[in-house]
Amino acid sequence: MSSTATAVRGPLVWFRGDPFLAGREETFVHESDGLLICQDGLITAAGDHAALRHLIPPGTEVVHYPDHVITAGFVDTHVHYVQTGIIAAFGSQLIDWLNHYTFVEEQRFSDAAYARTVASSFCDELLRNGTTTALTFCAVYPDSVDALFEEATRRDMRMAGGKVLMDRNAPEPLLDTARSGYDDSKALLERWHGKGRNLYAITPRFAPTSTPEQLEAAGALWREHPDALVHTHVSENTGEISWVRSLFPDRAGYLDVYDHYGLLGHRAVLAHGVHLTRRERDRCAETGTAISHCPTSNLFLGSGLFHVHDAKDGRHPIHVGLGTDIGAGTSFSLLATMNEAYKVAELCNYPLDSVKAFFLATLGGARALGIDHQVGSLEAGHEADFVVLDPRATPLLAQRTSRVGDIEELLFVLAVMGDDRTVRATYVNGALAHDRDAAPGPSTA
Ligand code: GUN
Ligand code: ZN
Questions:
Q1: Measuring from atom 11 of ligand 1, which residue has the nearest CA?
Q2: Which of 18, 33, 243, 263 would you label with 289, given CA atoms 20 to 30 Å apart?
Q3: pTM for the full model?
């Protein structure tokens, strides 16, 4: 943890509430000349520079980012670090894609050295994209979980993840058993959950790859450790949904499988949810279960269009965050993910504005993971994870952003045109963790 103070000046943007449910004035904060003061990894003050400058600890150098936009570090609510190597695998929908590409690649993680290399580049790639927290699937192998948390710890990131549970319908080398999956998950949870900034997620892959016994054991483990997360997939693809019905004929539907085994609730994050019924969405709302909206993946695999406005319906709103879903997703960038979320919403006749999109990528994601008291906001008391966006990152972006009329339009252009080049700097726990313009280190070749 940083023991020195950090002070950063520039335009600030963050959220105090959910703009899907309340007005801009109550939920959205914009300081055109803001100041952020951080001490020992926490934000101690955020607001107008002129009003707060007297709080800057003596001797602290103020880093000034004029004409940038500083916001909370992005939260990726669904990603598979073990699929980093298979982004852009051609030509299949979900089940074929899993069999042809994913299950082949994930077997490589039986090699702990390979896991370490990928975990390291994964964490670097998150930071290059302004993502300071991710909820990630690991492989079935416990070493792949150690590799992730060790690399995240080296970078001081708030990271959530877990070992995949799979005891059927996958290649034999990837299978655990209900007993070994429970034992391994429990040992990993006890080793990593709450250690430093790490959080453990109990991670059944999806209903088709777990027996009822394994789902029962996963539910039991969550009851023993209710402050851990649960992370899985739901209702992504219509063929997958039919398969779940045939595997679990006694259950009312896909969501009811997880409900039956005690896997819904606050801090349970279900990826996709594209085809959830209204009744299932209501059940998510009732139980506090969150959905990770993964637009680049849903388009890439031809899974369908997630209706974000139905999920945030005022009568039964669900916690929703954005997920890149690498490697079915096609970009690590939450800006690129907002761009696709906007287009998907347009196809559903819903204008997803920039304020709502940035909420989903920051505080909305933190709420989905149940850590909004810690990350996802620049409000004093939060952990000092933030990102500095550059509206002039490319000539075209500079041309376009020079014409914007207000902060909402600027955020919209950043969301639609932005990518990793737009991330000028990423701060983690109060310290600079990625500087786009830093001189490259010495070549090791
Ligand atoms: N459903 C079960 N496993 C996966 C996976 O690895 N990726 C996606 N997109 N969906 C899944
Ligand atoms: Zn996924």
A1: 233
A2: 243
A3: 0.98
